[in-house]
Design a protein that fits this description.
The chain has a single domain, classed as Rossmann fold, CATH 3.40.50.300. Helices cover 39% and strands 26% of the residues. The strands form two sheets. Strands 6-7-8-3-9-10 form a six-stranded mixed beta sheet, sandwiched between helices. A hairpin with a 2-residue loop joins β4 and β5. It is globular.
Length: 238
């Protein structure tokens, strides 16, 4: 469903990705772990169109999308819940969610009616958001904003969802809730690429995992294989 081949990307004269290659099969959850500065978030941004790759290919459901605008890639079926959540603070919770469906719903008549079932699905996943539908997103707690970012991505009914550091800055009890939600999404068959600072938690929910070092994949395998790898244990699981 998602293939990344020999991807190179960076910022200005600084190249961060130096040949990243990975794949995400339909209906699986793939984890991308690594140290800070390894290039994980840059990979996500290059996949979703927030950053233009200088070389390499990104294929979404068999179609090359590298170099396309982020809005076009989103319409082709990729949703990105970014690092730091990036909710629209002045807008209400419900308006943030509706923006997630903007690319696939009629622009004028029937917008809210056609989005109703998707809103109810998100509210079923995150009952706290239903209690705060008219509340400004910027006034939510960090955990609630993360729920909103995931819910907004789900509203697009994506073929592939990118989740970038969903646990960042959250209390341990909220992190557990977020990972329960990620596991539920996986059980529903949603195709997921997860970047996560807590490697052990990521491996517990993943079907396959990649370890990134210095802008490229250094190690890959099933969670069971990586959990026995001495290098991975020493760097990320010790």
């Amino acid at each position: 469903m998602l293939q990344v081949e020999n991807l190179h990307a960076g910022y200005g004269a600084s190249e961060v990705l130096t040949g990243t290659t990975l794949a995400v099969k339909q209906g699986t959850l793939v984890a991308l772990i690594g140290a800070n500065g390894a290039g994980k978030t840059t990979t996500m941004r290059a996949i979703s169109g927030g950053l233009k790759p200088s070389r390499g290919r990104v294929l979404l459901d068999g179609r090359e999308v590298q170099g396309l605008d982020a809005s076009r890639i989103a319409r082709l079926g990729l949703a990105h819940a970014p690092e730091g959540r990036k909710v629209f603070g002045p807008l209400s919770v419900e308006d943030n969610l509706l923006l997630g469906a903007f690319g696939r719903l009629p622009r004028f008549f029937g917008y809210h009616a056609k989005a109703k079932a998707d809103l109810e699905r998100v509210y079923d996943l995150f009952p706290k958001l239903k209690e705060r539908t008219k509340q400004a997103a910027g006034t939510l707690s960090g955990g609630e904003q993360q729920m909103l970012a995931i819910g907004r991505a789900l509203m697009a009914r994506p073929k592939v969802m990118l989740l970038d550091e969903p646990s960042m800055g959250l209390a341990p009890v909220i992190i557990q809730e977020v990972f329960r939600t990620i596991l539920r999404l996986k059980e529903e068959g949603i195709t997921l690429l997860l970047v996560e600072q807590f490697a052990r938690s990521a491996l517990e929910v993943a079907d396959y995992a990649y370890v990134m070092e210095r802008g490229r994949i250094a190690i890959e395998g099933t969670p069971a294989e990586l959990s026995r790898n001495e290098r991975v244990i020493a760097a990320y699981l010790g």
